[in-house]
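Query structure, 530 tokens:
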């Protein structure tokens, strides 16, 4: 888009003037919710967008066949009113809700469901890896206008959870294909347009400035009760700016304030702090194909050298727990007895000697995205630890988009070490261990370490195929032990979800779901004086 300056001027005027548009009870512009994000949106195409910034928008302009119930991981009908599963666990038959309208007034039918999944599989980007595990272009069959059948290539226990994720969004097939150019399946057009049926319409997108969502009057759930008609998502990369804007009332929710900054916001007039459970994790990843970091002895040495307690107390101010392996506490399959590397410099030095580098003597690169000051400080903590082993760590920050590209575009050009995190796509350990450690997941936002272990791959494949829950629990315990031993990550922390917002924001806490912690349903949020 070439109207950046015009859009920016509009945002400045909007945010400086919006506080004046208040009701008698002092709530500014009560029909508009403003969310400050830590990064911009690169695409709103459900088949391509695969970061929280894109997912936050897609979650609210599209619908899916199933959805999470309230704050639980229980699945309930959405576009599908009900479904049946075959005895072999391979065939799912969905019966669609009648009368659902897309934003252009077209009725949603089974043809749109087939188109949406087929398109994602053909494009094979972003979230497609989740679905290519168990689907192919022969999987989705239209039975009639309101019945669709999905036949998996093999039984896959987490399937229903995967289609509750934004990658399972259903799009308007006629509208998308009307904008197809040179066989791109509408990809260029859908980058900044919507073809959904969700509660909000994409009204404006000015890259790196703002996304504006407007209420869709004909949304199938209706608009009884309390809602906002407009949602503005604005990237504000500096934490200090988000804090200042929140205190002034220029924004309603500060979505990009790191957990270490939360204590400074507590007790501020007009501000409340939401605290809830989280399945989000943060780690330091090693490029397992590059020299030095491809050696598990060196990775273990670094894991022993790291000052976990210093990070938890000094950086995170006690608002997080040690991450015990790749599966977070609170998700079934987590192993409570899993080994955790203690800080032990002597053991680290012995491992470096065993690897052939008793005095270190090499330099590594470390990448982080500039929207997270915590990740920068994790780099500094690692830099300090590695100095004691004679290893130099060069730290480089990138914008969120540049960082994503850097770590997922092939191991040769990727950094040696990086700090990143993960929030769940679907409520199953498979989303943590397969997505981030299976060889099949190389080069995705999951397995950005390019880690590979045939023994682990075999364990993970069995865990996907079996429908015996207890057997799956046992397999995931085995998988976690293998991963921790190989140390492709330094397992840093799992935090609770903290979010600073104005006290006039209502409905967020009551409808918070840890599966959607960074992409809430704005439909459930409204503004009202306390």
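Result returned for the query:
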């Amino acid at each position: 888009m070439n109207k950046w300056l015009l859009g920016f001027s509009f945002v400045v005027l909007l945010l400086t003037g919006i506080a004046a548009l208040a009701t008698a009870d002092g709530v500014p512009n009560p029909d508009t919710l403003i969310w400050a994000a830590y990064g911009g949106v690169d695409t709103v195409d459900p088949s391509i967008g695969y970061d929280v910034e894109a997912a936050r928008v897609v979650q609210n302009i599209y619908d899916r066949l199933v959805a999470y119930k309230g704050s639980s991981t229980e699945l309930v009908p959405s576009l599908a009113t009900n479904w049946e599963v075959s005895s072999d666990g391979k065939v799912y038959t969905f019966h669609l809700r009648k009368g659902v309208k897309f934003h252009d007034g077209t009725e949603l039918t089974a043809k749109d469901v087939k188109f949406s999944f087929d398109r994602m599989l053909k494009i094979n980007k972003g979230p497609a890896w989740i679905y290519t595990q168990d689907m192919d272009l022969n999987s989705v069959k239209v039975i009639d206008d309101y019945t669709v059948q999905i036949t998996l290539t093999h039984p896959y226990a987490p399937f229903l959870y995967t289609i509750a994720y934004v990658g399972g969004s259903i799009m308007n097939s006629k509208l998308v294909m009307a904008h197809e150019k040179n066989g791109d399946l509408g990809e260029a057009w859908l980058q900044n347009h919507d073809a959904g049926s969700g509660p909000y319409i994409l009204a404006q997108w000015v890259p790196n400035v703002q996304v504006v969502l407007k209420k869709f009057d004909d949304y199938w759930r209706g608009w009884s009760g309390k809602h906002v008609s407009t949602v503005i998502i604005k990237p504000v990369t500096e934490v200090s700016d988000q804090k200042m804007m929140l205190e002034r009332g220029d924004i309603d929710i500060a979505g990009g304030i790191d957990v270490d900054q939360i204590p400074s916001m507590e007790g501020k007039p007009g501000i409340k702090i939401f605290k809830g459970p989280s399945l989000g994790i943060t780690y330091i990843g090693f490029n397992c194909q590059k020299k030095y970091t491809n050696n598990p002895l060196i990775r273990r040495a670094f894991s022993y050298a790291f000052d976990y307690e210093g990070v938890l107390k000094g950086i995170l101010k006690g608002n997080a727990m040690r991450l015990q392996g790749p599966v977070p506490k609170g998700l079934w399959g987590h192993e409570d007895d899993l080994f955790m590397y203690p800080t032990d410099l002597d053991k680290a030095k012995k491992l470096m000697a065993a690897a052939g580098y008793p005095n270190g003597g090499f330099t590594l690169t470390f990448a982080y995205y500039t929207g997270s000051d915590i990740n920068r400080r994790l780099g500094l903590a690692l830099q300090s630890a590695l100095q004691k082993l004679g290893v130099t760590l060069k730290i480089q920050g990138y914008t969120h988009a540049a960082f994503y590209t850097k770590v997922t575009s092939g191991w040769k050009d990727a950094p040696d070490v990086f700090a990143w995190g993960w929030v769940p796509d679907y409520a199953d350990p498979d989303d943590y261990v397969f997505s981030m450690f299976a060889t099949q997941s190389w080069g995705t936002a999951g397995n950005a370490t390019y880690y590979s272990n045939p023994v682990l791959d075999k364990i993970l494949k069995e865990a996907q195929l079996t429908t015996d829950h207890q057997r799956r629990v046992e397999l995931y315990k085995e998988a976690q032990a293998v991963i921790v031993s190989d140390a492709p990550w330094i397992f840093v922390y799992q935090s609770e979800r903290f979010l600073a917002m104005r006290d006039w924001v209502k409905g967020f806490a009551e409808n918070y779901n840890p599966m959607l912690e960074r992409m809430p349903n704005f439909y459930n949020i409204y503004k009202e004086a306390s």
